[in-house]
Design a protein that fits this description.
11 helices, alpha/beta, 7-stranded mixed sheet, elongated, 2 domains
């Protein structure tokens, strides 16, 4: 599976550089989380010459970016690490492609059209907005000059980074191990900080089972939705409150805390090391009734926390 950055979609539409910078952060984030995207999201070497803002190229905008880490990571990607369309461009005898009267032959979208024509599975990532808005799926690409068309090809297209993640997860190998579950969950849920659950000895010696996988992913999706629904100050928006009301309350709640007795008795067993090195006492858990599994997570969440730590998946700790 390959993805191509659609430089034709950069048309100087980002009058506010901060908007473009935020999109770059999201793209860098999914590259960091999803190895398949990092290895297969391609750009042209000329992408930095495309217009990001009015009269300002991508390179010029980045040179003025005050976020040193973002500037360095993006230049490293676009200048050095790639991968690049130009290094593996598909040959095409009648090499001319258009979208909505805009020539895209030498862009990432043009390469995606060539690959689609050749029967390969691929997609593009487009920057939304501009005089010609590429925020639609699919993009209908015409092959050949207007006077002599050879065909039209539907190219899959994304304009939200998470859309690529969902496609990567769907196109990747089946989740048939605890390690694969962790990798897929990290890709799918950007608002969760998922520990190396598969390295815990209690889970490692348990046979993998699809029903537990599916339930764990469903629980994580709810927690991810809760975190996504909080504002920058940690206040719960409507989506977050809906998760709390529907799944944290009542006799049949999906998420509950341990009793005071169990908290005292199993404090050591329910204390985990988070990814930032903190020792976290986590008696709150999501329930997986099959084989009496539990998924422990940090709760409640401090207002300044952007990602919710998932700290344990395995047999019920208090069932000893």
């Amino acid at each position: 599976m390959r993805w191509y950055l659609n430089d034709a979609s950069l048309q100087g539409q980002f009058a506010d550089p901060a908007q473009f910078e935020e999109i770059l952060r999201e793209l860098l984030g999914v590259r960091a989380r999803v190895p398949l995207i990092k290895q297969n999201l391609r750009s042209t070497r000329s992408l930095q010459d495309a217009l990001a803002g009015p009269g300002m190229s991508v390179r010029q905008l980045l040179q003025r970016c005050r976020d040193r880490d973002l500037r360095s990571a993006t230049f490293n990607w676009f200048d050095r690490t790639g991968p690049f369309v130009d290094d593996d461009r598909l040959a095409e005898q009648d090499d001319y492609f258009e979208y909505n009267d805009v020539e895209v032959t030498s862009t990432g979208l043009g390469e995606a059209a060539r690959r689609t024509k050749a029967g390969e599975t691929c997609a593009t990532y487009s920057f939304a907005g501009g005089p010609v808005d590429f925020a639609r799926d699919p993009l209908e690409i015409d092959h050949g000059i207007p006077e002599e068309r050879y065909g039209r090809y539907d190219v899959r297209n994304h304009w939200i980074a998470q859309m690529m993640v969902e496609q990567a997860v769907a196109s990747g190998p089946s989740i048939t191990s605890w390690a694969a579950l962790v990798e897929a969950a990290r890709a799918r849920f950007p608002h969760l900080d998922i520990a190396d659950l598969h390295t815990n000895s209690q889970l490692a010696r348990e046979p993998f089972e699809a029903s537990i996988r599916d339930r764990a992913l469903a629980l994580m999706a709810l927690l991810n939705a809760y975190m996504a629904g909080r504002d920058e100050k940690g206040a719960e928006g409507p989506a977050s409150k809906e998760v709390i009301d529907a799944h944290f309350k009542g006799d049949r709640a999906y998420f509950t805390g341990e009793s005071p007795t169990n908290e005292d008795k199993f404090e050591d067993e329910m204390t985990f090391t988070a990814s930032d090195g903190r020792e976290v006492f986590a008696p709150w858990h999501g329930k997986i009734s099959h084989r009496f599994f539990r998924m422990h997570f940090e709760w409640p969440m401090a207002p300044d926390r952007r990602r919710l730590p998932i700290l344990y998946l395995g047999p019920k700790i208090t069932k000893k």
